[in-house]
Amino acid sequence: MSRLATPSPPILRRAASAAPRTDAGPRRHQRALSWTGLLVALAVPVGMVAGQPLRALAALGLACLGPGAALVGLRRVRQPLAGWALALLVSVCGWTATATLAAWTGRWYPSALALAGAAVVGIVSLVGLVRAGRRPARPWRAGFRLATAPGVRAATHPAVLATAVALWLVALAGTDVTRVGQYGLLATVHPAFFGALALCVAGFAVGLLGPGRRVPSRSLPGYLVLLVLLLHGTTPLLLDQPQYAWTFKHLGVVEFIQTSGGVGASGDIYQQWPALFAATAQLADVSGVGVTALADWSAVFFNLAGALVLLAVAGTLHADRRVGYLTVFGFLCINWIEEDYLSPQALAFLLSLGALLVVLRWLRRPVPDRPAAAPGERPGTATAGGRVRVTAIAGLLGVFAVLTAGHQLSPYLLLAQITALVLLRQVRPGWLPLPLAAMLLAYLAPRYGMVSGSFSIFDGLNLFANASGNADGWGSDGQAFSAIVVRVLALAVWTGAALAAWYGWRRSHPVTVPAVLAAAPFLLLAAQNYGGEAIYRVFLFSAPWCAYLIAAALLAPRDHAGRPGSARTGRVPVAAAAVLAAVLGVAALATMQGRHGQLMVDRQSTAEVRAARHLYATAAPGSTIATVSSNFPGRLSADYGEFNRSVAVGEPDLVEGAGLRHALLGPEHVPQIEEFLRGFAGTETYLVVSDGMRRQVAYFGHLPDGAVDRLAQALDAAPGWSVAHRDDGVVVYRLTG
After folding, report:
1. Fewest Cβ atoms closer than 10 Å to its Cβ: which of 4, 31, 336, 370?
2. In DSSP terms, which residues pair with 172 in a beta bridge?
3. What is the pLDDT of residue 367?
4. Closest alpha carbon to 237 in 189, 205, 273
């Protein structure tokens, strides 16, 4: 068996009483996709008339599923999981591309565009139904019917899932986020949360390793969804406002596009890569849902969508479906990188996975040492015909174009991965990286000055400096604890993946492709620091493939017979399931600590958001708005570009901008602060002091204890300063003298 490819049997299990193989299955899945597209198309105009919640659901369906389902449904779908993942990818790309073009051209008519798009989707879906035959299908079931492992009671896993959800709800009701301290959410959350997580990982392990191991339990998708809710749906339900101060800067860009109907020739770097913002603005306008609500649940959406695409990608690499489920579940457990809030990198990562799905499924080279039509191999995995390859290349270029307009860094990481696969002769054609690189250079060239002014393009061949991260020290015990936890997790993942790749190589398992995909992102460290975030992007883009390598090694067949959990014993391997559940549980807790260890800083209060909106609504255009530290929900309104015009991103702050880090602020620093603020030559000058800033400087050790309070007292007493706004824990000072 070659190490360069693996046979891939069909995803769905055939019933024992099924008739001889026909095209009934592919036609059924084709009908399911076409019916889905038709239902979405009909729901859009009805939702606009009927209002919420149908309007929101219809808009979400049009943005994420309808167009792709209609197009994919034009052909017979032999692999339903890949079909649904492709439908998601096509829909998201189409929605984002149309929104971006509308923003660039200034022709912003989202509702009219949605209605026109729904009409086209409906027509294409009808064509697909005619091609597939007239017998209706059940779109919510096709492609997801997995056989239940024999010997396991049908109600066991639903009962476990229901109990876990109940415990999660108890935890939500019993958690007070205002009590979160320097050790983060896990130190404060109600103990029922740990029970819910334990049931989730234990149920998944039993379902994965139970009797009939080649046919995983049908409840595994339920455990994946539950894990996403536990890891990413907890904070939206606990917090009053979206997490992270920088989220609000993105909301401001979205509101600008909604208000102005496009992006201008702005020096704002966000508007030069507008794909995510335009897509969100279009979704908000069509759905009638506020941008803040979309931001709250963006992490849940991106993780669920990414799970579907990654599951389909894993299915192109391995015949055993259990490997795909363990890959996705494991990736969710180890992904502590906070890329999935409402941000360009969240969309970029999803599109990158989608691009690799196209590459690995339709552009793989045939295996040279065995027939192309090997038993169990999925059509198109490595032997796609010329027409299919041309379509796949065109689709890849389209996805990459949207990705290029969405994020500054992610396309280069994807290009590195694809180039590595081409150089190692895993993917064809050999010229594939050339149009991708040309696209990147063409987009970057007119924006080079802006990017080089904000980030250095080349930081030198200093791997250790480029991998150092963006923290220059640990300012509190809580920060140190969280940092150590995620470092240990990352090193454990990379070490485990390296050992798994070595294990697979020694046994002639196909590890070349996932190993290359896991290693290629490290090339970034040879040239870029990306503001201290390069190492985080490296982990993010390598983690899915590390999870795959580990999953494939753990579930690889062993040479000895009668091992626990084999079909011969017919029993759940208790020890193996317990160990797997423990490892996944520890990894999930480490990820929670990495994501929410600094929740005391990341949470934004309603008072702070209210103060920010009041300030941006009442301050004169051209004003300078400064902060003590960066933890403030600024630039959150459509007119954010009218303020701090001489500042590239964010607001000038005293800790970094004025060079007052570690200073015990007081009356003696007021003249220095005034000189610093007058240097921006704003029409008016404001300085914001808030509890969020107090928490930030305490957590990171930027200022001594009590420094912010001493500054507030000094400003209250200083001549030339007045209070422009005061709210719960927030004071906005105006420099009048």
Report:
1. 370
2. none
3. 54
4. 189
Beta-carbon contacts of residue 353 (< 8 Å; ≥ 6 apart): 306, 309, 310, 313, 544
Reading the block at residue 312, the tokens are: 């389909």
What whole-number distance in Å separates Cα of residue 631 and Cα of residue 697?
Answer: 9
Pairing of strands 730-735, 624-627: unpaired
User: Residue 3's pLDDT is what?
Assistant: 40
What are the φ and ψ backbone dihedral angles of 510, each rounded to 5 degrees?
-75, 90
Q: How far apart are CA 548 and CA 538, in angstroms?
A: 16
Give the dihedral of Cα atoms 374, 377, 381, 387; nearest 10 deg.
70
Q: Which amino acid is at 225?
A: V
> CB neighbours (10 Å) of residue 458?
10
* Interatomic CA distance for residues 81 and 10, integer angstroms: 10
DSSP letter assigned to residue 640? G
State which residues of the chain have pLDDT below 50: 1-21, 137, 140-152, 368-382, 457-467, 560-570
**pLDDT (0 to 100) of residue 691:** 96
Rounded alpha-carbon distances, angstroms, from residue 460 to 480, 491, 525: 28, 24, 9
Q: Report which of 183, 206, 202, 197 is spatially closest to residue 231, judged by C-alpha positions.
A: 197
Q: Where are the alpha helices (DSSP H) in 463-619?
A: 463-466, 477-506, 512-519, 534-554, 574-596, 599-602, 606-618
Question: What is the chain's alpha carbon radius of gyration, rounded to the nearest angstrom?
Answer: 27
- The candidate with the shortest Cα–Cα distance to 151, out of 224, 209, 223, is 209
Question: Do residues 64 and 171 make contact, with C-beta atoms less than 8 angstroms apart?
Answer: no
Tokens of 103: 């923003």
Which of the 8 DSSP states describes residue 364? Answer: B
> Which helix (DSSP H) or strand (DSSP E) does residue 393 occupy?
helix 386-404
**Residue 571 has what pLDDT?**
56
Tokens of 14: 């055939």
% helix, strand, coil for the chain, step of 5: 60, 5, 35
The encoded tokens of residue 443 equal 């987009």
CA distances in angstroms from 699 to 391, 462, 478, listed in the order given: 52, 29, 7
- Helix 344-362 / helix 410-423 crossing angle, nearest 10 deg: 20
Q: How far is it, in rounded angstroms, from Cα 710 to Cα 122?
A: 64
The sign one gets for the Cα dihedral 259, 263, 266, 268 is positive
CATH code for residues 605-735: 3.40.50
| Residues 378, 316 contacting (CB under 8 angstroms) | yes
CB 248 within 8 A of CB 268: no
Domain ranges of the chain: 156-233+297-598, 605-735
What one-character DSSP code corresponds to residue 59? H
Q: How far apart are CA 307 and CA 608, in angstroms?
A: 34
| Of 198, 228, 208, nearest in space to 301 by CA | 228
- CA gap 342, 289 in Å, rounded: 15
Q: What is the pLDDT of residue 335?
A: 97
Query: Cα(180)–Cα(595) distance, rounded to whole angstroms?
Result: 14
pLDDT at 218: 80
Distance CA 244, CA 228 (A): 19
Coil, strand or helix at 686: strand
**DSSP string of 14-38?**
PPTTPPSP-SHHHHHHHHHHHHHHH
Cα dihedral sign, 470-353-308-84: positive
CA distances from 337 to 119, 332, 407, 537, 707 (A): 39, 10, 16, 8, 31
Distance CA 527, CA 167 (A): 47
Phi, psi of 187, deg, nearest 5: -80, -10
DSSP H or E run through 688: strand 685-690
| pLDDT value for 455 | 56
CA distance linking residue 296 with residue 233, whole number of Å: 9
> Strands 685-690 and 730-735: what pairing?
antiparallel
Q: Which residues pair with 685 in a beta bridge?
A: 624
